[in-house]
Structures are given as structure tokens and as C-alpha cells.
Write a structure and sequence with these properties.
The structure is a single chain. The protein is of the alpha+beta class and 772 residues long. It folds into six domains: 79 residues, no CATH class; 87 residues, no CATH class; 80 residues, no CATH class; 130 residues; 169 residues, Rossmann fold (3-Layer(aba) Sandwich); 162 residues, 3-Layer(aba) Sandwich (Rossmann fold). Helices cover 19% and strands 33% of the residues.
Length: 772
């Protein structure tokens, strides 16, 4: 189940109720209407006249539930669509004979591309109102010589365009969403997948928002009438905010507020007792605008939290200062909140500070407040964010002193290479990094190699006895000195885990991001699609660290990395070190590990776990095992971000929950998951794998990409229902947990290595590159 659309434009919100059995719709006035999914009557056909969709819920790719506003009343209906349905819809336009669009339901349709009698594409579009899959491309060849729009679907300020590009031999399906439309526009029209037309002061203009910006932005075409100086029109397209303004007699479109508003900013920030002071120069090049946008906003607040004060006349007007009480910043459950400037009634653009280092995430100021650290920092959009994190040791006065000493005493000149090894948060030592480190120490090398580990780790005393001064205590002066002198990092995690998942200390972060990393990985990248938005930071073009090499396990896995910009030279085909001689204890449990679902994280943290598919998946598996007298064998393995919440919500099943995935892998006779790469580690240890894909369609829609792990490539049986899951478990028991030969062959394509020499191959590479 998934909520595809909620009509927030009309002020509606929603809440899933009764463990997923119903939904409450909350109006802008706070009125609540509850609907049970099963009680909604079935309806065929499109919307009736004057009906508006308030909510759309998907149960699967052919079954939908709707809440509809009908004569100021809310009603619910459900539809099971059939592709053969073809309802008339005035919003659909066909411009080419190769395209057919069938309206199959209220907000669903199927489009087909034909060449003669041959069907080249059949595509269901179920989320017409949803943001998902905004740009899709399909390779095909049509007898069309020039770029052509084959058809369109338009609904209010949303549109889908089907466009063919003969030079690329590709078909594009593009969604356009217009939001936050400036009230001063008299009319806005979507012409095609890149061109928007608007009317202002009875003049017609248009622009191509997909063009690359030049010095002042994208030229606005149409009327030659220039916008008045200081007037800026705003329009959000597909979540990106665009600004339309005039400069030297020409009209431009830009994504950069600095250009549109002529912003000049040289602001600084300081903490003074229980107040934040922002001060310095801040002006707009359009003189009449300076002082107009002096109100400070923070994400989540509709009203200003402060405003700048200025000298009244002359050049002094550009000097400004503002005070913000600390409680205005700390009264929130959010980690990151952007700061903005605007007039008295609305926020208009980000608050820009003086960026000395010209880096993303530069820290402007920080202070410990109770048990938290409050940080003012730059963000990706060059604006300013306030970040509130639980206070951790690296921000303590003694640690800052150690960091400064380490930075000042950094050694220069010729010396032996220094390499640092670590695992997640430098708090554990049971994966690939410790295996490679151990192997390197057994070699005769000229390098100096150290493993970083928190002294609170249960493994610290034993490993300290084994490795002596080669095992370095996290947060020690030696730890920081080694960071500043390190030539390479060798880890299962990205470089920041040498300290924490987020580092907001300028010098330390700069050194860590610049040091080359040999990324050992902690799992095979062949489960969740690598193109999913949550993995965008892992795409080659977005990498903020010095990623020298990534360890992979097969040519099949390499193809995943090629999809997001990696080249063959970026990859090391050696197999994961952690797969060598795996630890295996008493294999007696049937473990279930649902994959992390980033889109539900806020619901979990807001104590609304029961509204999540993560919760429903777990409870359905528990009940299936309980009903079949298998509960004592079941082990639920939640993601570490959700672990505490799962334990709290399942008090009657505490004995069935293991919050340590590494430990669960050593105990699993059967390993069940949807798209967790841990399943390959489990197979390597002898577990029987089962892919639990009851929510497969929903997960793929949320990932916004097709996983390469599918019915053809999965190295284990697939279950889509609770009954199939239990039957597969019982079949595994009957087989003595021996995996079928066909699945073993598929696994060998994903993991090419089974000779326990992965670590040796990695160390050979380190030698060849003179890293060790």
C-alpha cells in the first residue's frame, strides 16, 4: 500500500489508521473524515463533473482507493483497472498515429507505442498526480525524422508529454508539475516538456526551463516588454524554484536568487549567551529593494523569527544585524532547517553568509546547547542551515584542542606511507577492513598501518592485546594526528565514518574528504537499484570524497556502477574480504531483514511506526510464522536506524528480535529479505535465501528505478504472499536447506569468488599501487 497523492493545495493532510485498514483525511480547518479501505464502493470510469481528487492510495498496480470531493462532501471509492478500459478524457491529446492512450481509471491510464502491428511499448501510468518517475526514457526506432510530441495528458497545473527524439532513437515520458505559482501571473500554460508560457501585465512570455543557464540566466522570449526593475516573479517547476527578472533591458529566467534579487551578502554569525547574532553587510543592487527583504524565516515557520536592523541613511544602510533567540532554533524535532529571507509576509530566498572556504557545508558557528550541538553551516544551495545534532565527543573542547594540535604538528617531507583502517563509525571490527588490516600486518611492507576503534567496542581489549600500538583509540590525539598525516583510508564505509556519519568541523572535514579512500564495501551492490534517490550521493558525479577504488564481486555488479558514472578503472574486481572464511555459529534461526525505507524515516521518528509499510511487513511475517507454529525459529532483524522503535513496538516478541545484523548472519539457517544485500552474505555463510516480495511494486515505485535483482536474476525462491512464504520455508526444511542448483548458478554470477582469497587479491592491489 502506498499513498500516491494528497491534495495539499486544497489544504488536506492524511493519516493511515488501524494498522493500514483505513485513512483519515484532515481538512485545512482541522476537520477529520475517516474511511475504511474495504468499505469503499467500486466504481468504473473517470471523474464526474465538478469532482476533485483529494487522495489516491495504491494497493498494487491495478487496485486503487480514492477520496473525492463531491459537492463539498468527501466520499471514497475504489477501482480495479483493466488495460482494455478506454474512457473518454478531454485531458488526453494524441498527435501521432504511433501512440495510443487508454484511460483506465480515475487517475490511471496505459499508453502504447506501435510501429505497424508491432507493439514497441506498453506502459501503465498509475500516478498521474504523483511525482514519481518524472523523466523516463525508452530506446526505440520510429519512422519520424524530426523531434515530435506524440501526445500529452494535462490536468490542472500538471502535464505528461510523450516525445520522440529521432537523433537519440529514444522516447521520453516527462511529467511537469507547476507549483507555487506567483499570484501576479495572469495565466500559465505548459506547452511541452521544457517550454512554459505565461502572461503578465497583459503581455505573453515563454521560456525553456531545461536550457543551461548563462551569465544572467535563460533568456525569456515572447513580448519585448521588460519587467519593472526590482520585480521578481516566482514559479516552482518539478520542485525547482525559478525566478523571472529583468537586467539591462532584457528578461531572464534563473534558479539563482542572487541574480534575480541582486543580493550582496557578507554576513557573519556568533553565539552570545542565549542569542544568535547575525551581522555584517547585506544589500540588494536595486537600491530601492535594500531593506525590503530583511525578515528572517526558518523552515517550518510561516512567520518571521527575527528581522535585520539597519542604519537609516546613505552607505550605512548596507550594514545590518539581527538577533535570534536560541529557543526559536531548538524547538524542533528536525535535524536540518534552512534559513531564509523575505518581506513581512513571505520568505523569498535563502539567507547567504560569508563563505570563506568556498566549500559546501562550511561551518560558520557552533555551540553546545544542553545535550545537543547547534551548528550554523552552509548548504548545497549556498544558503544557510541550522543543524541540531546530539552532542558527540569530536565537538568537545578537549577534542577540538587535540584536532588543532594534530593539524599544527602535521609532518611534511618524505616518510613512510600511512594508512588508516576503520569500519562503521569506527565502533566495530568484524567486516572487511579488519580482515585486510590483519593481512597487511602479516606482510613485509614499508608502510605504517593503523586500525581505528572506539575504546567502548566489546572487541577493543582483545584487539589491543593482539595489535598493540597499531590499534588506535578513537578520539585520541594519536587518532587525529594520524588523520592529518594519512595517505590513504581503507574502509567498508565512506571516509566520514572515521569520525561520525556527519562532520561539521571545517579543517577536519576538509582533510578527510581530500584523502584517497579504498572503499571495501560491506555488501554486494546488486539489490536495491543504485539509481534510487537515496543513493544519489553515491553517484560518481556527486561524490564529495576522494574515492580512489571500489571493491566489487562480479562483472554483473560492475554494470550497476557503470549506470551511475563509474569507469572500469574505478573498480577492483576481487570479491569482498568479509566473505573470506565467514564466522558461522549455530545456524538455527529463520531471519527476516526488511530493507531500510528512507521515505518512512520521518514517520518512525515521529512515533508513527504503525503507519509504515515497514511495520506492516514485519507484523504480517510474525503472524504467518505464529499461525504455522514457527514463531520460535523466527528472528526479526530491523535496520539499525529503526531497531529501537521496533523493539518498543513489539514487546511480546522481544525474544524474536536481533538488533545486530552481523550477529544474525552467523545464526541464520534461512535468510528472508526483500532488497537487502545482506542476503548474499547469508548465502555465503550457508543460509537458504528467500526473497519476500509482497510489497515489490510499492518498493520499486518508491525507489523510482528498476532493480537489476528481479525474477530472472534472484538467487533464491520468491514469495509474494504469506502462504507462499510459509510453503517456501517448509520446502527449505524438506530439502535440508540445500539451495537448488539453478539458484546457485545465479548467485555465482553475482559473486564470482568462493576461494577465500578475496583479502589476498585486495592486498595484492595495495602492493601494486605502493599503498602499503
Amino acid at each position: 500500500m502506498e499513498v500516491l497523492f494528497i491534495n495539499s493545495k486544497l489544504g488536506y493532510d492524511y493519516q493511515i489508521e488501524d494498522e493500514g485498514k483505513g485513512i483519515s483525511i484532515i481538512s485545512s480547518e482541522g476537520n477529520l473524515s475517516y474511511f475504511k479501505f474495504r468499505e469503499a464502493p467500486f466504481r468504473e470510469g473517470p471523474l464526474y463533473k465538478n469532482e476533485k481528487i483529494i487522495a489516491q492510495v495504491s494497493f498494487n498496480s491495478t487496485h486503487f482507493f480514492y477520496v473525492i470531493e463531491q459537492q463539498k462532501q468527501l466520499i471514497s471509492v475504489q477501482q480495479k483497472i483493466r488495460d482494455k478500459n478506454h474512457f473518454f478524457d478531454r485531458h488526453i491529446e494524441i498527435y501521432d498515429k504511433h501512440l495510443t492512450i487508454n484511460k483506465t481509471g480515475i487517475a490511471s491510464m496505459t499508453l502504447y507505442i506501435h510501429e505497424g502491428r508491432k507493439r514497441l511499448l506498453g506502459k501503465r501510468v498509475n500516478g498521474l498526480l504523483s511525482r514519481k518517475q518524472q523523466n523516463e526514457w525508452y530506446t526505440m526506432k520510429l519512422p519520424i525524422k524530426n523531434k515530435k510530441i506524440l501526445g500529452s495528458i494535462k490536468y490542472n497545473n500538471k502535464a505528461i508529454f510523450i516525445t520522440y527524439y529521432p537523433n537519440k532513437e529514444k522516447l521520453s515520458i516527462s511529467k511537469i508539475f507547476l507549483e507555487e505559482i506567483d499570484a501576479r501571473f495572469q495565466k500559465v500554460t505548459i506547452n511541452n516538456r521544457s517550454n512554459i508560457e505565461f502572461m503578465y501585465e497583459n503581455e505573453n512570455y515563454n521560456f525553456d526551463f531545461r536550457k543551461v543557464e548563462k551569465d544572467h540566466g535563460i533568456k525569456v522570449r515572447g513580448s519585448k516588454a521588460k519587467l519593472p526593475i526590482g520585480i521578481v516573479l516566482k514559479l516552482k517547476i518539478n520542485k525547482t524554484c525559478f525566478y523571472i527578472y529583468s537586467y539591462k533591458g532584457k528578461n531572464y529566467l534563473t534558479c539563482c536568487p542572487k541574480k534575480a534579487y541582486g543580493i550582496k551578502s557578507d554576513l557573519k554569525v556568533s553565539f552570545v549567551k542565549d542569542t544568535v547574532i547575525i551581522y555584517g553587510k547585506y544589500s540588494n543592487t536595486y537600491r530601492q529593494s535594500t531593506g525590503e527583504y530583511d525578515y528572517i524565516y526558518i523552515k517550518g515557520n510561516d512567520k518571521p523569527i527575527s528581522s535585520f536592523r539597519r542604519l537609516s541613511t546613505g552607505r550605512g544602510k548596507s550594514f545590518a544585524f539581527a538577533k535570534i533567540p536560541i529557543e526559536f532554533l531548538t524547538d524542533t524535532e528536525e535535524i536540518h532547517r534552512g534559513l531564509y529571507l523575505g518581506n513581512e509576509v513571505e520568505k523569498l530566498y535563502p539567507l547567504y553568509m560569508k563563505n570563506y572556504l568556498k566549500e559546501d557545508f562550511e561551518v560558520f558557528a557552533r555551540k553546545k546547547i544542553n545535550s545537543n550541538i547547534v551548528i550554523f553551516r552552509g548548504n548545497v544551495g549556498e544558503g544557510t542551515s541550522c543543524t541540531i545534532l546530539p552532542f558527540s565527543e569530536e565537538y568537545s573542547l578537549s577534542n577540538i584542542l587535540k584536532q588543532n594540535i594534530a593539524s599544527l604538528t602535521r609532518k611534511k617531507g618524505d616518510r613512510a606511507p600511512i594508512n588508516l583502517y576503520f569500519e562503521k563509525f569506527s565502533k566495530k571490527a568484524d567486516e572487511s577492513a579488519i580482515k585486510v588490516f590483519d593481512k597487511v600486518l602479516a606482510e613485509n611492507t614499508l608502510s605504517k598501518n593503523y586500525f581505528i576503534l572506539d575504546k567502548r567496542s566489546k572487541d577493543f581489549p582483545l584487539l589491543k592485546e593482539k595489535y598493540g600500538n597499531k590499534l588506535v583509540k578513537k578520539y585520541s590525539l594519536k587518532h587525529y594526528s594520524l588523520i592529518y598525516n594519512a595517505d590513504h583510508f581503507i574502509s567498508t564505509e565512506f571516509s566520514n565514518h572515521l569520525i561520525n556519519d556527519r562532520i561539521f568541523i571545517n579543517k577536519l572535514r576538509s582533510k578527510i574528504t581530500k584523502t584517497p579512500l579504498i572503499f571495501l564495501q560491506h555488501g554486494i551492490m546488486f539489490a536495491k537499484p543504485i539509481e534510487n534517490p537515496m543513493a544519489a550521493g553515491f553517484h560518481k558525479k556527486n561524490i564529495k570524497i576522494n574515492l580512489k577504488k571500489v571493491v566489487i564481486s562480479s562483472k554483473l555488479e560492475a554494470k550497476e556502477f557503470y549506470k551511475v558514472g563509474y569507469q572500469p578503472d574505478d573498480l577492483l574486481l576481487s570479491g569482498l574480504a568479509t566473505f573470506d572464511y565467514p564466522v558461522i555459529n549455530d545456524l538455527k534461526f529463520y531471519s527476516y531483514m526488511p530493507t531500510y525505507r528512507y521515505w518512512e524515516e520521518h514517520l518512525v521518528y515521529e512515533n508513527r511506526l504503525e503507519e509504515t509499510s515497514y511495520y506492516r511487513d514485519i507484523i504480517s511475517v510474525i503472524r504467518a510464522f505464529e499461525e504455522n507454529n514457527l514463531l520460535e525459529k523466527l528472528l526479526i532483524v530491523p535496520h539499525n536506524k529503526f531497531a529501537d522503535y521496533i523493539v518498543d513496538h513489539f514487546p511480546n516478541y522481544k525474544e524474536n528480535i536481533c538488533t545486530n545484523p552481523s550477529e544474525a548472519l552467523t545464526l541464520s539457517k534461512i535468510f528472508i529479505s526483500d532488497y537487502s544485500s545482506a542476503i548474499y552474505d547469508a548465502i555465503n555463510r550457508g543460509a537458504y535465501p528467500i526473497f519476500w516480495w509482497k510489497e515489490k511494486d510499492m518498493l520499486i515505485e518508491k525507489y523510482q528505478a528498476q532493480p537489476s535483482l528481479n525474477e530472472d536474476t534472484a538467487p533464491g525462491p520468491i514469495a509474494y504472499t504469506e502462504q507462499e512464504l510459509i510453503e517456501t520455508v517448509l520446502n527449505a526444511e524438506r530439502r535440508g536447506f540445500q539451495l537448488e542448483e539453478a539458484f546457485i548458478d545465479k548467485y555465482k554470477k553475482i559473486n564470482n569468488f568462493s576461494d577465500n582469497k578475496n583479502t589476498e587479491r585486495i592486498v595484492d592491489y595495495l602492493k601494486t599501487e605502493k599503498i602499503i
